[in-house]
Amino acid sequence: MNTPINIKVKVNGKEYKRAVEPRLLLSDFLRHDLELTGTHVGCEHGMCGACTVIMDGVSVRSCLIFAVQADGHEIETADGLGTEDALHPLQQAFMEEHALQCGFCTPGFLMTIIPFLRENPNPTDEEIRTAIDGNLCRCTGYENIVKAVKKASVKMAGKAK
Amino acid sequence: MPNDKKEINVIINNQQRTLLVDTKESLLQALRDSMYFSVKYGCGDGDCGACTVLMNGKPVRSCQIKAVDAAGKAIITLEGLSQNGDMHPIQVAFVETGAIQCGYCSPALILSAKALLDQNTDPTDAEIRKALNPVLCRCTGYVRGVDAIRRAAAVLRGEKVKAYTHIDLALPDDTGKIELPEAFYRKDGSRNPLPPLVFTPREMQKTLVVGKSEVKVDARKLALGRPVFTDDIRPEGMLYGALLTSPHAHARIRSIDASKARALPGVHAVLTHQDLPRIKYATGGQSHPQPMPYDQVCLDDKVRHVGDRVAVVAADTQAIANKALELIDVDYEVLPAVVDMEDAMKAGAPIIHDEKDTEGIQDASRNIVHHIEAEIGDINKAFAEADHVFEGEYRTPKQQHTHMEPHVCITYLDADDRLIVRTSTQVPFHVRRMLAPLINMPVKNIRVIKPRIGGGFGNKQEMLLEDLCAHLTLATKRPVRMEYTRTQEFISSRSRHANIMRYKVGVKDEIVTAASLYLIGDTGAYGSHGLTVNMVGGFKGLTLYNPPNARFICDVVYTNTPPAGAFRGYGAMQCQYGMEVMMGEIADRLGLDVVEFKRKNWLKVGETMYLSQQLGEGREGTKQVLQSSGMAQCVDIGLQATRFYDKRAEYKKQDGRYRKGIGMAVVIHGSGIANLDMAAATLKMNDDGSFNLLIGATDLGTGSDTILAQLAAEVLGVPLEDMVVYSSDTDFTPFDKGAYASSTTYVSGGAVRKAALETKRQVLEQAAIMLGVSDSESLILKDRQVIAPDGRKVTMAEIALSSLHQQNQHQIMATASHISPVSPPPTAAQFSEVVVDTQTGVVEVERLLMVVDCGRVINPLTAAGQVEGGMSQALGFTLTEEMLFDQNGQPLNASLSQYKIPRASNSPATDVIFVQTDEPTGPFGAKSVAEISIDGVAPATASAIHNATGVWMRELPYTPKRVITALGQNKK
Amino acid sequence: MKPAAFDYYAPASVEEALDQLAELGYNGKVLAGGQSLIPAMNFRMARPAALVDLNNIKDLGYIKEPGEGGLAIGTMTRDSVVEHSKVVMDKAPLVVEAMPFIGHSQIRNRGTFGGAIAHADPAGQLPGIALAMRARLHILKKGSDRWESIDDFFLGPFMTVIEPDEMLAEVVLPPLPEKTGTSYKQVSRQHGSTTQAAIASVVSLDDKGKVASLRVVMMSVGATPLVSSAAEEMLVGQEPSEAAFREIATKASETEIDPSTDMHATAEYRRHATHELIIQSLTCALERAKGKGG
To answer: Using an 8 Å Cβ cutoff, are B376 and B550 in contact?
Structure first.
């Protein structure tokens, strides 16, 4: 049973069939097997949040899930967020608000905030801070990230109307 | 495991490896896919030998061996020859002797040498040439490779060898009587390689780094087979592109159905003319604005030659891409084709460019792209007043460059969605500019990277794959690689313009007083370099003897053959061929000594080149005066080295089947395009006193990175090893027009020298502050240090650290640009010695000697490499190379087995002597050397064949049939 | 690959899982949410030979209200589901109060209620909460099942009474008496990081305002979460007072715990923190108990 196992995963709307070793982490699977480098790996034990992806609608640490466990599930990563021509409002807000400096942690933030805003389209600053508590950022001091989330929430709520 | 895949166990470079290979794929493919990138693709047909590896100790062509058949075998690739970067003695010898130019065939040559020396510790010249014979090299003419193997053999036998360098001699005032090293007389008839010989006028200023036979800065990595060429990287997710070419010489595409190809699993994009915008352009890489006509679009609904573009595919593997090409249904309306340039101009000939949207065709209805006329003096009066008027018609063939590395390109989008174009090009900056409109992307979003290039010779002064590859990347958002097959190199790339020359020359009192040339240039299916090549031809052909009364009329003609383009020699080679043979014929008819007749007439210092203003390159030129020439000395020295007159006297007595002959020709060329070619260079000082030299100049194997660094090192008083050279990348290096028109040493070198002088000024200024000296001009910069008048010193490293970290803090750095109002001609005398078999018509060239004045020789070994390689290509042009087509435009010899370029064993003794001159406008007195080397072999060989047989050969190449026919006509 | 290789089983039913566990014996390890196990495997501190992944078993995740009152929580119920459950908030607010201290939202989206209890991390929140709530645990093995009291459940750090061929299936939290207040207090270096010390208190008052029953659980100060006997001995039947809380805190922190020094905190600090947290927690629980039903 340590042999590769066939899995079928939907990532960003596209279905992938691959054979994976059980010990392959979802984060490594996304990056190396699917070549979706929008998911970053920062600590590999669930502390930094850089590898956050959305699994069946909720954000999870992809370094703490085996790829085989994603079989039959739906994953969203930062790679699928914007389109070629237009950034997602959240990405746009990150850019405009200087919410990223080196940008390494950004995908994890995005994948944490997207489901958060689905649940809570009009958050307070405090709620935003709580939501992003599991994501480490060493460059920005979080201020501009909170601003960006706020800005995006307004824009997205406007669109939703 | 799919059943078309198989695991094989092989021992590669003494390591057991298991490779998963396709049952159909070649060992070449499997090795490259396994990251053994030293194994090169050259033709895929087993003709060129670039893919040579050792299998169980024997050299084999890996393209001809299935990977599955290598199971259980021991394979050695070049990666296996060295350990931890320590070169094998053969590699060392290749580096030291200058045997590596572009380096693309070097792995194969070195492995062939290894197999030979494993068996034979002291091989003869003939044995070495036999061992190298399966491997084609287009750059070097094999001279230094043979020498490298002799040297390596000696080292491996434990013998001490001397440092490898050229021979330096002082140029005497009277070159009519000169002592040469004995070997240069070649009395033993051997063709052992000789080191280059350099004659230096006494008054020439001494230099330290310039003039040294430095090892090429890129030689080591090339000798080690490091992955430095375009195709030696594989970006993640790279797709393989393939080009569908036209099977017809002239046809309209009624419809294309690509649906089956698109449905093939693994295919990511299929593009036809229906998918791309119709934007007119020209492929020739030239300065803005490019010469007309803009007669191409990326993909057209009409094809104009066999090999013309029809569609492109991108797929997961090359095999799938090729399969997809087969699935594209094209419905052609085949049109009548015309392949002969004179027929093309006749009424009723098929009209090749009948489209409405091409601008700049002179007369599309007669397939005349350009009609050029230029005149100086009063030509009719001069002919009327001449003692004698001679006429002659000369023809030169369509020659293919056959650089060993095919055109290859990898495009991808970076994270900013900028398009990166990693391509085997001579003109990265032109490609960037030309590509932009075709893919509707601003120039700023395109970055062109030129890695190491496996030879170009002009064929990579064209944008041939970059646009298609880019379109595929834009369509798929994936990296895409496209590489021409060797067949496509023959039918879908470029070639030398075939020419017909009709010269008329008036002579009065042994002086050429008038000359006219009617030139027909066959540009093939597209205009490309048609205008400029033929203008240069007219200018150089009529300037070699520079009559004050001259007329040039030229028609550049479309035919349904693969387009002609830029090729080393660039018209000058063709037109000087005609003129030189004509001059020989005139001397013969007038009973004059041919050398003295030419001497009286050739272009001399102080003379205005009469046509220089009328015939620029594609535009009005500027008036130019010859300021330096070593022509007379070159001729004198060559006459003595070949014992020309002794042999001519001796050969008068021949009457057997085999006749010997000796001939000579003089030639000139140019150094860049006057008032147009611009180059820039940047120098930047590092903490340790070394410098980055950033240049847009494009080393394609020529050694330009090395000689440009030598120029900078000379100015800055540091050894060559302190220069870190980077060329070329449109994002990181300043502009340079590219490697063409023999411009790099002269124009790019001018820029490097200027940048170095400004850098030097900054270095001295910093040193003055450090030394507390008020006048920085009193300081001397040499040997990595600056010395004050009182003897105190600071080192370059100290200056660098001071400037970066301590006082007067700034980056010592300079960028300079250079353009020249003149294009000073190098001059040369070419000698050729032949044996003609009067029964079979076979001409064997036994010795080629070129005595060259290229101004100051920056690096004798690399300069000699240029001359040797140029002579080798010219030898092919003279004897064997001619692209042939049937009347329907179908190619007859589009492979390296049919189209013969020189191999090691049929290469003659190839000798180079330099006579240095001091060109006042050149960097340290340098002129160009790249192209003049190719100009003289054909006319010198014509002269030699005439000397041997009494027959004037006017049409190249001198095939046995043409020689026999000429001999037969002579008897009548 | 970060973790060492292992065999992987993903049973679709409880029966199948029990069969596999029976077959694997000591080689088998249950994979629930994996939020503690997988990081340990990533560092190769844990190298199980085989994993039996319960994530594909649909009927192990639920929150029910059994007839006898209280809550029954399926072992694979995600922490975030528990955290946001109204019924849990209503019936066992202590659980909800402790939830935000468990890692971060992404961890709780994946981590499971039963998994954390079975993992028996002495610094973990849920083992202590279960202890404070006097949980009963339903343990299955092939062909049989048993119920265990949480008081007998923990054997040591990361050790419980669950045998290799067994699995925890359900956690029952008995109903809290009326006039009961609960409180969770924790200190750690920063939110979401390892517990330095934590106290969970459950205080039930009788009609006269005296303490009817009481449980104080101390975490991260011993091999398992610890119940303070001193607290029970000193307060049951008594009028609660700040002085009494202080006395309990002193006795418990001095005699009932065995804290160790590690990179997260010194033993001395843990002792001090336990002392302070007991007072805070009891004070808070008492306030809450008083607020209920007068």
So the answer is: yes
Domains, chain B, with CATH or none: 1-164 (1.10.150.120), 235-335+404-455+460-492 (3.90.1170.50), 498-673+823-971 (3.30.365.10), 678-819 (3.30.365.10)
Q: Which residues on chain C are in Cβ contact (under 8 Å) with A52?
A: 106
Nearest to B154 by CA among B86, B93, B215: B93
Per DSSP, B496 falls in state P
DSSP for B814-865 reads EEEEEE-S--PPPEEEEEEEEEEETTT--EEEEEEEEEEE-BS-S-HHHHHH
Co-location of C272 and C185 in the same domain: yes
| A35–chain B Cβ distance below 8 A for any pair | yes
Residues A62 and A101 in one domain: no
Q: Mark whether A9 and A73 lie in a shared domain.
A: yes
CA of A152, closest CA in chain B: separation in Å?
Answer: 22
**How many residue pairs bridge chain A and chain B with CB atoms within 8 Å of each other?**
4
pLDDT attached to residue B917: 97
Percent of chain C with pLDDT over 90: 94
- C-alpha span between B259 and B254 (Å, rounded): 16
Band of pLDDT at residue B515, cut at 50, 70 and 90 = very high
Q: In this structure, are A70 and A10 located in the same domain?
A: yes
Out of A2, A5, A46, the one facing C39 most closely (by C-beta) is: A46
Chains A and C touch (3+ CB pairs under 8 A): yes
Please indicate, yes or no, whether residues A122 and A154 belong to a single structural domain of this protein.
yes
Q: What is the rounded CA–CA span in Å between residue B436 and residue C195?
A: 60
For chain B, the maximum distance between any two Cα atoms, rounded to a whole number of angstroms, is 88
Cβ-based contacts of B414 with chain A (< 8 Å): none
Chain C contact for A5 (CB, 8 A cutoff): yes
Contacts of B477 in chain A (CB under 8 A): 84
Span C65-87, pLDDT tens digits: 999 999 999 999 999 999 999 99
Alpha-carbon span B603 to B835, nearest angstrom: 31
User: Which subunits sit against B, judged by 3+ Cβ pairs under 8 A?
Assistant: A
Region B738-754 average pLDDT: 97
* Interface contact flag, C34 A46, Cβ < 8 Å: no
B23-81 confidence digits (pLDDT tens): 999 999 999 999 999 999 999 999 999 999 999 999 999 999 999 999 999 999 999 99
Alpha helices in B415-571 (DSSP H): 428-438, 466-476, 486-492, 530-543
The pLDDT confidence band at residue C294, using thresholds 50, 70 and 90, is very low
- Tell me which chain A residues have a C-beta less than 8 angstroms from the C-beta of B237: 35
Same domain, C36 and C138: no
pLDDT at C194 (0 to 100): 86
Q: Which DSSP letter does residue B891 get?
A: B
Whole-number average pLDDT of chain C: 95
Pick from C145, C173, C201: which residue ends a domain?
Answer: C173
Look over chain B and give the mean of its residue pLDDT values, rounded to a whole number. 96
Residues in C closer than 8 angstroms to A69, CB to CB, are 10, 34, 53, 55
Q: Does B359 touch chain A (CB under 8 A)?
A: no
* Residue C140, domain member (yes or no): yes
Cis upstream peptide for B957 (omega within 30°): yes
Q: Cβ of C51 under 8 Å from any chain A Cβ?
A: yes
- Domain of residue C237, CATH code: 3.30.390.50
- A84 within a domain of the structure (yes/no): no
**Cβ–Cβ contact C250 with A under 8 A:** no
How many domains is chain A partitioned into structurally? Answer: 2
- The residue of A43, A61, A120, A129 whose CB has the most chain C CBs within 10 angstroms, and thus the best one to mutate to test that interface, is A61
pTM value? 0.86
Q: Is the pLDDT score of B715 beyond 50?
A: yes
The ipTM, to two decimals, is 0.90
Residue C61's SS3 state is coil
Residue among C3, C6, C107 minimizing CB distance to A46: C107
Q: Which residue of A has its CA nearest to C106?
A: A60
Sorting pLDDT into bands at 50, 70 and 90, what band is B440?
very high
The nearest alpha carbon in chain C to A53 belongs to C106
